[in-house]
Amino acid sequence: MVLPSAEESLSRPSLPAGLRQDLVDVVGAEHVLTDSRTAGYVVDWTGRYRGFASAVVRPRDTAEVCAVLALCSAAAIPVVPQGGNTGLVGGGVPRAGELVLSLGRLDSLGPVDRAAMQVTAGAGVTLAQLADAHPDLDFGVAITSRHSATVGGTIATNAGGVRVLRNGPMRAQIRGVEAVLSDGTVLSHLSGLTKDNTGYDYPSLLAGSEGTLAVVTKARLRLVPRLRDPIVAVLGLPGLAELHGLAIRALQEVPGLVSAEFFTRTGLDILLRNTDLTPPLDAPAEAYLLLEASDAGALEALAELAGNLPVAVGHGAADRARLWAYRERHPEAAGFLAPPLKLDVSVPAGRWVELATSVGDVVTAVDPGARVITFGHVADGNVHVNIAPAAEVDGRHQDAVFSYVASLGGSISAEHGIGALKADWLPLSRTAAEREIFARVRAAFDPAGILNPGILPR
Amino acid sequence: MVLPSAEESLSRPSLPAGLRQDLVDVVGAEHVLTDSRTAGYVVDWTGRYRGFASAVVRPRDTAEVCAVLALCSAAAIPVVPQGGNTGLVGGGVPRAGELVLSLGRLDSLGPVDRAAMQVTAGAGVTLAQLADAHPDLDFGVAITSRHSATVGGTIATNAGGVRVLRNGPMRAQIRGVEAVLSDGTVLSHLSGLTKDNTGYDYPSLLAGSEGTLAVVTKARLRLVPRLRDPIVAVLGLPGLAELHGLAIRALQEVPGLVSAEFFTRTGLDILLRNTDLTPPLDAPAEAYLLLEASDAGALEALAELAGNLPVAVGHGAADRARLWAYRERHPEAAGFLAPPLKLDVSVPAGRWVELATSVGDVVTAVDPGARVITFGHVADGNVHVNIAPAAEVDGRHQDAVFSYVASLGGSISAEHGIGALKADWLPLSRTAAEREIFARVRAAFDPAGILNPGILPR
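^ Those are the sequences you sent over. The predicted structure of the assembly is below.
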């Protein structure tokens, strides 16, 4: 894949002057960015995806989003909706001159409805703002990028994170959505009903649609009770099979289990060499299971579960953060070795051990010098496969990992989405009939075909 | 609404002879029912909806479903998919000569995957069979009709029930679906992945689509840990405002809360007069809150919550069943007075007390002799409004209740669906833009327009 350099990007032709003026009339001149002012919006944070934009338009509210989309529809200008730009698969950056619709200014956060445990948030509100909105309530989705990742972007990607086990992904937090179709029509259903069987659940469809169906402008979101004095434990295990067995037992036996995460000696050793982290346990283990739980009885259940295994337990906030850091800093590990390739796959529970054990060999079979760091979520079948490649990144690593995952009945994208990174491999996870229905649904929402046209191709 | 009598229905013309033979060739002569043999399939169990069918076809597997649908598509014969026929809004019975596609024979239940806590079930498996599939695991959705209601039907209606609070509705149980489009194409994604962001989540869309998008033939479903020694408490309260306040507190304070249900003196008195039930508490109360919880600490939390309120607590299975009967038999209550009209609405949490308190007056304003029994789910905003009418059922009751609910920002169907009963009132809950996108999504799935054509009209 050859992408233009930043210099090339900025020299590309811009919008028709008439359209540019129309956009300025809608959002104001200071919110129609062109040329070098688009720089922060045309590259993703991994640096792997860098395109160019005819303009970046920053509406401040739903009405402006409608007007901008109606103009783009009429002019057949492709649009890439963008939230906090923390995506990992190149789904939110322009590729070849699309208009970037940045939703960051839709950042109004309504009052928390304590009885309903809900709040209405604009697309530009960050997940950290949601988590901090009320002292007794928390947001159900916790991801490392929560200080930048926004409501709109995380709905579009159906973000997962470390509490899916307890709270489900973004899709499960949605109690209502306001979204704008490509022709400027508003779909709105925000009253926050927990039960509502009055037609098709299009909010669930928008979750994970990667900006291809409609532009989410607001959401009514559920909040969850804030954990009271949660306990975090990091256990050392001799291998991944033992780790998986213990995690499955934890699911059954630990009351109020919120997270069951893992990492391995490989990734930990890299972090210990390159950061200020110190070893979590007295002696190194091959595999590490991090459990967080909050209910009464959790501590006894954890102790029972741990038996004679080495374990570190964190009670207070600082202690918990210290233990979580071993897991949360794992996305950095591969980057200490080489510009990393980050894959994110899931398999059925019965194949998890096989995946986690063998995926490293699958990679080194096509790139003998590669280093492979695995970590992630045990209980939901999700493994993050971060690769520090030695050979050229020409698709061979992805081919190998995704084909292997498909052979296990798994998904080539557990939580990051398809985006640009995985588009070529979608047929490994979805049949021709499924991709055909995707295309028909997409045409139903966006007949003009202007929304994120490079993403989720057939 | 004038519906044909059973005699009229059976005299209507039948299928073209050529198509009938083709169907016989697919499913066998004993599974193509016509004339009087369709009787059990053309009336819903409330008796309110009675149509006629050109035939009832009972395929035994997915391949036969595909073949039948391909034949119907080619001949432009409308099809009504039918599961256990326990629907309450006339969504699963034919109206005017459609072909009924009965999925009851797709009743294979796969082995329980203990580690994944999942099972694959045919569309004709009942929810009771799912609940009984493994000694340590239960199915997350519990509805009164569980011995007849099937996987296919409850996905199509997104059934709710008394554990939505803990487990969510049917949509939240789905880990994969196999479904057949009207042209016979199979969509299949059954490997049971908890996290899978590879395109549009069409299983969530099929949930609640009332048989209008595709015919669900199988589902991969999550199971939940079976409750260990749950506790049931029925508390007597002086009014609905106090009841709602206590339920909201219970949500926060009772660990492992599974259900928060309510009924009132009105319904209870009718049941006490007409059944063998005896009063739950020493003295009558105006409103009754039923709570079920299972975790360690639940009993103490319930005792703390109850304070000095009158309360009956059930520990063993028989005792719990005795207390649940007060709630579970409420759907019968209105029927002791008159052929009942059963409405099912929800409102935002902040409007629940208003709804539950005033809906009776809203009904008697249009039918002064009507008796109104309310009961249902407190924590999710859902109230079942059962009416024993005195005046003719000509739409006035529905007009009054649904308009009132819409004025509160609520839904005219919390869990039963739209079906035939509520079709005329859909615009109260959904905007023109939403109904337009429904129509476009429907055309994307079923371009021939043969699936349940009378249901979910624009």
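Chain A has a mean pLDDT of 93. DSSP finds 17 helices and 16 strands in chain A.

Shout if you want it in another format.
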